[in-house]
Amino acid sequence: MPDAPMTYQIGASVKRREDLRFLTGKGNYTDDINRPGQLYAYLLRSPMAHAEIVSIDTTAAKAMAGVRAVFTGADMAADGVGGLPCGWQIHSKDGSPMVEPPHPALAVGRVRHVGDTVAVVIADTLAQAKDAAEALEVEYKALSAVATTTEATVDGAPLVWEDAKNNICYDWHIGDKAAVDAAFASAAQVATIDLVNNRLIPNAMEPRAALGDFNPATGEHTLITTSQNPHVIRLLMGAFVLKIPEHKLRVLAPDVGGGFGSKIYHYAEEAICTWAAAKLKRPVKWTAERTESFMTDAHGRDHVTHAELAMDAEGRFLALRVSTLANMGAYLSTFAPAVPTYLYATLLAGVYKTPAIYAEVKAVFTNTTPVDAYRGAGRPEATFLLERLVDEAARVSGIDRAEIRRRNFIPADAYPYQTPVALQYDSGDYAGCLDAALKAADYDGFAARKAASEAAGKLRGIGLSTYLEACGIAPSAVVGSLGARAGLFEVGKIRVHPTGSVTVFTGTHSHGQGHETTFAQVVADALGVGIDSVEIVHGDTANVPFGMGTYGSRSLAVGGSAIVKACDKIIAKARKIAAHLLEAAESDIEFKDGLFKVAGTDRQKSLPEISLAAYVPHNYPIDELEPGLEETAFYDPKNFTYPGGTHICEVEVDPETGVTKVVKFTAVDDVGRVINPMIVEGQIHGGVAQGIGQALLEQCVYDDSGQLLTGSMMDYCMPRADDLPSFHVENHTTLCTHNPLGVKGCGEVGAIGSPPAVMNAVVDALKGYGVTHMDMPATPEKVWRAIQAGTRS
Amino acid sequence: MQVEVSLTVNGAAVTATVEPRTLLVQLLREHLALTGTHVGCDTSQCGACVVHVNGASVKSCTMLAVQADGASVTTIEGLATDGTLHPVQEAFREHHGLQCGFCTPGMVMSAVDLLQNNTSPSEAEIREWLEGNICRCTGYHNIVKAVQHAAAAMRG
Predict the structure, then answer these.
(1) Is the reported ipTM for this assembly greater than 0.90?
(2) Tell me: domain B87-155, CATH 1.10.150.120, correct?
(3) Do B89 and A23 touch (CB under 8 A)?
């Protein structure tokens, strides 16, 4: 058989295999699934931010038509149901562990934020459950609430938890304080900034949903849920909340309509539906209304920061000092404590060779929805701080904004580069990204465009962000030493079927990222099979070995690496089988493009021939080798991966109305090797849109009493098609040095790099009015007021 | 109280008995098992539920089922004909106009209606028309590109 030329898939913009079902209405999202005899759950939620539950009278509700059960926190406690666990423990400066309050699935005795779960009504129809919930009589005794990050630590502020003094969950720090203080003492100039990283509500388009089921004949519990990591949910809910052993608990996450972090966490409704289904011996389904998403999906960001940058006379960075207050909300969500610490302060070196850094972070409780990782998780907060501060440093020192960055970049030959805040970067080329972005954005032509805007009565500004992030989370031993209560390896299993087609099982989960396509490209090239012969399976704990799921831009860097390792094992075994079939020494067998060849001859076996021999082992080295062709690999990453790049934003501001429009956005990103350029570009588009949303539109607002004022899409400003421009996206690649594919991560870079580029552009546009800083979002009102308050210079 | 509604859905005559408060989207999803039409919000903002009623795009979460009595409704499931994707569906696939897929049915149905009304919309017109369909994944860049290519393909 002549060698057919193989078409390599890696690097090709293969059209997505997921799309046909989504485009024809054949997706299979949790709320699309119904089970025979299914009941509907409706959750009664707290209308108050902070209150004692004096009494709950369920009598009238229970008597209503179709109602099968009403449960409260007392019922769950009586059944021995545990609280929702937190997956990361941070220790304070003084060595004491963080304050870790209980988090019952249904509130016991007290509610602590608007939307806190009070009771669940389960009925034949959703309408009946809702009607009955209105008949529940709950007597609350209102307590004063604390809603804002800065007020939480003030003496005399209402306490969310009695044992958290001044509402402080932990008071943590990192870096060399003495070295930083010494550097400031001798600094020629200092740039200072105070800023807020605005609280966001993730708003994946598919609302969360959960469908619990129980089979009394087998004792098996099933949960179908909108999760980014079904195994993590099985572990947390099974081991800590409901005490169901893994072999009797199956968690499925079918098609999931976006996550952005908000679907990582184990939520109360998952436990409630699973528990209630077993109690009632009927399937129980809950689907969030969007208002519930606003009140109960973990929020993101919400930092208040003071920072100073010490420089020498030439604008070289000497030291960075940062103090941050981070809002945890009322309870600790699954990963929450890690976000403002090890995903934030460790990123404060950014792309700069600042020799000394010290950061302290106080995490505080408030009577608000829990805050956890949202697209970027800590790294956008670090990047926004650094890149705004560097612009301020440029202003203070009178050095051009591109030049001061270039002067302080970690040089391209400095890798591996050890930062003063724990991370060791493996690769990057920040100056290369900056040069490419300046060219693509026509930075030099900005003055002419600004003049044209001014001639039309508009203000124009340009902003840069030269960012870096750490993703592909993460070496298990490292995160364990930092307080993680889980490992962060990933699993890949390859099943070569008897006739040579391939099923791949991955512990990661795709909810928009296109893994079914990208991973198939990787496997097709590794095994030398056609991409149409490869199927990707994810999202089912009964079929997939234990994996940690998708977040922190880890799927390809960690999950893809596990898949590559499993492919290597397949090839190693197939080589032995080939040697037997070809009556050659194993060392003489060469593998290329799906063919196992005796070196220097035309004798060869294809993978399908070998797999058939493995499953029909008539002529097979059965004494030395097991039949079958299926291999599993677990991959623990050696380091984070470090994508980086330059984003350049140009805005035009109408001084009459304060309306700011992004008129040009350029992103040059280094995400390592690109498997599917089309998908990578799409990930960056989406991230940039969320970053522009944060910078110009989005803001979660609570009033002083803890009422959520932005509780619907009419009040919370989601980016829409006419709020955004088209984007210019390029890759400037350096390879990751420590994973087999050389890949970094691309899922979060857009949301990490873009907000400071936008805000630096807004400040640049308004500098003529004396504006040196503006907190996000730069709404028309805020911009208009700044113009009115300013004096045109 | 229950009422009977009769309508045509994706070319087939359908009769269902519903509560008067039943929304068109509930009729489609829960009574007719047409789960391609999604519910993404509760304030008529997101557009995940857009279908065509008598040829025009409508947010099916904002219309009672009884209001569709006698109407002809097309959902995402009825857009492809004889297994051939509509040019808008094809263009979304070709230009990566979707990621998680949740907003996609409404987005596609809305875009089809745009192109029925305007065969060569500008980028600004596309963005303005799609203002009532929220996508959290794509940043709209590839959706706009897909609609432009679909328009060109449909003009022939």
Answers:
(1) yes
(2) yes
(3) yes
